[in-house]
Amino acid sequence: MALQAIKTFEIRLIPFKNFIKHSIRPLSSLPEFSKNKYNVKRKSFNLIEDAHVSFFQNLLGKERVLTDESELLSYNIDWIKNCRGESRVVLKPKCTEHVSAILKFCNDNNLAVCPQGGNTGLVGGSVPVFDEIVLSTEGMNNIISLDEISGVLVCEAGCILENLDNHLREHNLMMPLDLGAKGSCHIGGNISTNAGGLRLLRYGNLHGSVLGVEAVKADGEVIDCLGTLKKDNTGYHLKHLFIGSEGTLGIVTKVSINCPTLSSSINVAFLGVENFDNVLKLYQLAKSSLGEIMSAFEMADAASLETTIEHLKLQNPIGDYPFYVLIETSGSNESHDSEKLTEFLEKTMSSNLVLNGTYQTEPSRIKPIWALREGIPQAILYDGYVLKYDISLPLKDYYSIVPIMREKLGSDAVRICGYGHIGDGNIHVNIAIKEFSQEIIKKIEPYIYEYTSNLKGSVSAEHGIGFRKPNYIHYSKSNACLGLMKSLKNLMDPKGILNPYKVLPS
Ligand code: FAD
Ligand code: MLT
Ligand code: ZN
Q: Between β-strands 152-156 and 251-258, what pairing exists: parallel, antiparallel or unpaired?
């Protein structure tokens, strides 16, 4: 097909839905309790008593202490409904002083705590395993300051990512991070998971863009590293301890973050590709042709796209192909950017790297294309019980695990699909099975982690370790590294009250 066809291709408008507003499947299908399902032994924390609840009510006010079972349910179950705890108390502090007082009290009374942001985490880290007290950052959602010249935003941990982005847009700035869960996830949760997302290839990860963090240690001590400087080499860079430590070393209460300027020219191309080799060739060509304006390079296989079309009733604007690539450019000069993109697309057509495609410049037409990609995690939940593998692999081996899994599982799987962030070497292998089955899981794990480790990949590229993966962390980290992690944990949380059963193997 000639380039002309790409340019004039009539895309049907797909209504954009904000998918990610908490659970989508009915709660009639309650998951089994994690403690039974994964056979976990409770650690010797104290049980919560009425006197503890009274302390919290006096501190926060009754309306910020939830104890009603029906209110607790959504805090006890994770987004993919793999994990379920049985917490009896959810606390909603309003400020750092509240968090500090809660943690000091819990530490003194040997009560375990599970920090929770938007509860969109995908590894079971955000929900309790037993009766840990849930400390939700929902009530801490103030923007503290925005320096429009430097682009530095300071805010509380409970701000929802999308709200921050909307606020910044009014000032010609944007968040350096974007993900499908933006409508629910909190910036504190993003930092605690070191979330990657859709534009990491352009804006880097949070270790770079987060300038400062305020966090509360297990004993209630406030660690103020909330600097707003872009350069500050005074001593150890403590903020990094809280980025990606999934609530096991402290609770993030405030953050300062470096925000890029909003791009005035955005284009999105959605392309159909014959095979994965061509996806890689396309990536190489995109890097050299688009250079600094490329802001996303995402891929999805046919099975991934089928889920959004089948379950979310979205429309595929270009017809059926084995692989799809979404390329976004963000720049400041419309004619320059579209000239570059057009030239790039011409090359892809003449070299037959692309079979068909469309590219869009209008926000109303770009959104439905992104929806096809961002909707995949939600859509696949309709297929049954979903097992998620979020791995980094060398690009030449990136997709290899998908056909292997299909071969291995045959009709045990309802669907196996692969999609992800090519620019980051991060593939999401999602396996939907009819219902939870240890026998089927044994065919996948630890095989998939061994496979990843043999290729020097990572068993968790961006979702973290949480509750579901501590037993597999050793596939990506040496004993010496794990030993140092345990020492840090002991130093910062000697009683182990913060997010127990998570991240480090017991
Ligand atoms: P939660 O789920 O509430 O918590 C996550 C972890 O952080 C838990 O261990 C919790 O204890 C801890 N935590 C939360 N808040 C704090 C705090 N203030 N202090 C200390 N610890 C805390 N992830 C990606 O990396 N990239 C993606 O592209 C991506 N896309 C997603 C798309 C969908 C549809 C969904 C459902 C999830 C996606 N995720 C993605 C996973 C998830 O959204 C991220 O991990 C996100 O950063 C979690 O934020 P949250 O506020 O929901 O945190
Ligand atoms: C994504 O890239 O869509 C997210 O990381 C969520 C997922 O893996 O399902
Ligand atoms: Zn992802």
A: antiparallel
Give the number of the atom of ligand 1 that is nearest the alpha carbon of residue 115.
11
Quick check: 421 and 198 in contact, CB under 8 A? yes
Q: List the one residue out of 29, 374, 37, 313 whose CA is nearest residue 185.
A: 374
| Chain centre distance of CA 333 | 31
> What letter does residue 423 receive in the DSSP assignment?
G
Is the pTM higher than 0.70? The answer reads yes
In Å, how far from its chain's centre is CA 439? 28
Determine contact, residues 401/420, Cβ cutoff 8 Å.
Answer: no
Q: Which residues contact 367 (CB under 8 A, 6 or more apart)?
A: 16
Q: Which fold has domain 3-15+263-377?
A: Alpha-Beta Plaits (3.30.70)
Angle at 52 (CA atoms; ends 48, 56), nearest 5 degrees: 125
User: Which ligand approaches the C-alpha of residue 197 most closely?
Assistant: 1
Whose tokens are 């370790």? That residue is 465
For residue 165 the two structure tokens come to 């982005």
Ligand 1 residue neighbourhood (C-beta within 6 Å) = 20, 79, 114-122, 125-126, 137, 157, 179-181, 185-186, 188-190, 192-193, 195-198, 246-247, 251-252, 377-378, 462-463, 466, 499
pLDDT, tens digit, for every residue of 215-257? 999 999 999 999 999 999 999 999 999 999 999 999 999 999 9
